[in-house]
Each structure stands twice: as structure tokens, then as C-alpha cells.
UniProtKB/TrEMBL annotation:
The keyword Oxidoreductase applies. PANTHER family: 3-OXOACYL-(ACYL-CARRIER-PROTEIN) REDUCTASE, 3-OXOACYL-[ACYL-CARRIER-PROTEIN] REDUCTASE FABG. InterPro entries: 3-OHbutyrate_DH (IPR011294), NAD(P)-bd_dom_sf (IPR036291), Sc_DH/Rdtase_CS (IPR020904), SDR (IPR050259), SDR_fam (IPR002347). It holds the Pfam family adh_short_C2. PROSITE patterns: ADH_SHORT (PS00061). It comes from Falsiroseomonas selenitidurans. GO terms for molecular function: 3-hydroxybutyrate dehydrogenase activity. Its EC number is 1.1.1.30. This is 3-hydroxybutyrate dehydrogenase. Keywords: Oxidoreductase. Belongs to the short-chain dehydrogenases/reductases (SDR) family.
Amino acid sequence: MTKTLQGRVALVTGSTSGIGLAIALGFARAGAKVMLNGFGKPEEIAAARQAVGEAMGSGEAPYSPADMAKPEEIRAMVTACEAELGACDILVNNAGIQFVSPVEEFPEDRFDRIVAINFVSNFHAIKAALPGMKARGFGRIVNVASAHGLVASPYKTAYVAAKHAVVGLTKSVALEIARSPVTCNAICPGFVRTPLAEAQVKPLADKHGVSEEAALTDYLLDRQPTKRWVEVEEVAEMALYLCGPNSGSVNGTALSIDGGWTAQ
């Protein structure tokens, strides 16, 4: 792989699995030094640190256990990235959680935590990282939103509201920094193949009395015209482009990777 990010430092939240880990691996293979963040079993975190470290050509990748619902921990994470790796040139706000419920039954604490992690954390991380980016003369901010940042689905009020807010935050920040050497963009994936997403297929098959293949295409991916998963590597490639050379004029956009979902 061409080392398009050689010399850059990236901080990727929610990067111990799934989309975030794929982005971290892609950045490391492109030459960046990467700090990971996220929750999970200790052995899973260790495996992620080892994999990204090997991609960087070093030992374990640095890691922050910061809780994205706690602003003080987010600020400390950005400070630690700058102290340990010398900069925070690239910030990927990827951490997110989900909960599904009718609005009148939605637990208030769940709603508040989803909004805090999926949206408010982006603000705190951007606020902490942006001054250093401006001072060093380079910065790339990538917010991982969702197709649900552009369109809605029922029973996902907290997630949909948070992801719509991420897209709005992206646009507003992009306008503020338009004359600086920093850009801010959002990626809006549809249904992505991750262990958590794949685990939804069998329960749907059992519920509707159909095969798992039919459950996937007719129920889980019913709004995704391609009827196939978005792969984590596809999302990582988009993030890599947004943070690499010749992307400086892409600013304030919400780029869909959704198999045509939002084209309908």
C-alpha cells in the first residue's frame, strides 16, 4: 500500500472492533501512527492493539480507555494522543451505541447516553483537537454518521436524532474552518457487516420463519437496494481518501456508503 499517511498521527474512537478497527488498520497500513479507543473484553482490546501495532511496524498500538460519554475523559484522550505520538493530525469520531424502542417506552437514561456517545462526544473531541491541528497546519476530521443521519427509521429516535446532529455539526464546523488547513466531513454508511449486525440475522429468520438469507435480504436489508452488506473495508477506504492527499477541497460533506438506500 502507498504510504499516503506517512508521518501523520490519527486518533480513532470506537476502534477496538468493527468499522473503527478497520479504519485504524487502514490508516496504520498507510503509514500513520494510530491511537485506539473503545470498550470490549481485555483480550479483544489486546488483539486490536497488536494488529494495529503490527500494521504500524511497531509493538502494541497506543490505547485510550476514555468513555465517550464523559467530556473530561475525551479531552484527556486527545491530550494523551498529542503527548504520546506528538500530534493529533486526524480525528475519526466513530464511537457509537444503539438501542431500539418505541418512543413512549424509550428509557430516558438510554436516550441520553446514546446522544452523548454518538453525538456530543464528537463536539468535545473536535473542540479539543482543532487548536493543535490549526497550529500544526494540517487537520482532518471524519465523523462516522450513518444513513440514519440523512433519513429516519421508526423505533430508533435517539440514534436517528444523534446521527442527524452529527451531520449538522459536520457542516457547521466545516464552514468555520473553511479557510484553514483543516477539513471536516461525515461518512454515512448503511448496514455494515459487523459481528453485532450479523447477530441480528438469525433472530429475524426465527421470528419470520424464513431462511437466514431471506431474513437478511427481505428484512434486515430491506431498504438497502444492493441487498448486500457494506463491508468495513469500504468505509475505511473512504476515510483514508478523506484524510489523504488531494482531498483538501472535500469539506462539509456527508458521503453515503449505503448501497443506494438514501437515493430512494
